[in-house]
From TrEMBL:
The keyword Transferase applies. Keywords: Cytoplasm, Metal-binding, NAD, Transferase, Zinc. It holds the Pfam family SIR2. Binds 1 zinc ion per subunit. Residues 1-239 form the Deacetylase sirtuin-type domain. This is NAD-dependent protein deacylase. It is found in: Cytoplasm. It comes from Azospirillum cavernae.
Amino acid sequence: MPALDSVRLNPTDSIVILTGAGISQESGLDTFRCAGGIWSKVDLEDVATPQGFARDPDLVHRFYNDRRRGLLDPAIQPNAAHAALAALERGWRGNLLLVTQNIDDLHERAGSTAPLHMHGELLKAVCLRCGTVSDCRDDLSVHDLCLSCGRKGGMRPDVVWFGEMPHHMDRIQAALEDCDLFLSIGTSGHVYPAAGFVAEARAGGAHTVELNLEPSEGVSRFDAAIHGPATALVPAFVA
Ligand code: BV8
């Protein structure tokens, strides 16, 4: 695999950046599949599928209420990797699309202006009755009324569960086809369709780079990779 120093950032190029839970790990948010991660503590079938929500909505609300309270803890702050991507965006003259699998708001709080949350947002809720999406910073429950339609029992986290179509896919795929550089940061490459983005970018002629703590499941599909903590790698890469 070529060394990373073969990659030069040209600020008029078109770049797609994909982030995963690893970019928020050093801010204090758990990842999913690392040792002791979220999926080692709860079965994703019970809390991250529509079937799980239909079976036991209180369990799913408790799962996301706990994570929402955790995210809103003042100790949880964006880290140097989030800040480096926001700084890159400010100086970038080409197209830059930041796509995140994360449902936290750390990219926004670091200054990124328009990250695409393909798996939704923990601080938003959606009404199953009328489809209205609203801000959500408090606990949700089956007893909540929708402030738009006034009906009860339909509020759920605005999060994409397994078997549900991720958000913004048309826009993401168009950007992958046209980009010059695809940069993947802090993701295991386990969950699709995000894990397939590297192949789509390469097919469009992009140079593809992985920055991750350890080789991801898709590392062999990248042109270049460097492994270590995001707060060390990302600022150095974008400098
Ligand atoms: C869909 C809910 C279709 C939100 C999540 C092929 C094609 C299409 C679909 C599939 C397919 N094969 C299988 C599927 C189905 C499924 C899937 O991928 N299953 C997996 C288990 C195989 N995909 C889906 O269901 C998707 N939907 O395809 O719909 C469709 C079509 C038509 C009509 C309707 C539907 C939906 C996927 C989204 C599911 N929701 N979560 C939430 O609660 O957060 S997925 C979950 O995994 C999270 O969202 C998370 O973002 C995502 C990916 O995980 P990562 O971010 O990568 O986190 P992970 O812990 O795995 O890895 C962290 C990495 O960071 C590690 O590599 C680690 O080394 C690194 N790291 C750690 N610390 C650091 C670090 N790196 C740097 N620095 C550090 N300090």
